[in-house]
Design brief:
76 residues, alpha+beta, 3 strands
Length: 76
């Protein structure tokens, strides 16, 4: 099991997007920090849709990958 500093919390944002933040409101899913393969695996399995219980836009994963540095950026 990964330690908390190795994980980022992902929540659904309005419009079917994804946002990263430990204190954001709403249902969250935990993802490996800095791991593009972990992100792609979750996207390929539609894990975000299931875990967050809402439809997620197809381009939301790309948006998440290029999100603001310092907030759990996913690099690949």
């Amino acid at each position: 099991m990964a330690s908390p500093d190795q994980l980022v919390r992902v929540v659904a944002s309005p419009g079917g997007g994804l946002a990263v933040g430990r204190t954001l409101p709403g249902r969250g899913a935990w993802l490996c920090a800095g791991s593009a393969s972990c992100l792609e695996a979750a996207a390929g399995r539609k894990a975000f849709d299931r875990a967050l219980r809402t439809p997620i836009r197809a381009d939301a994963v790309q948006d998440l990958r290029t999100s603001a540095p310092g907030r759990g950026r996913i690099e690949g």
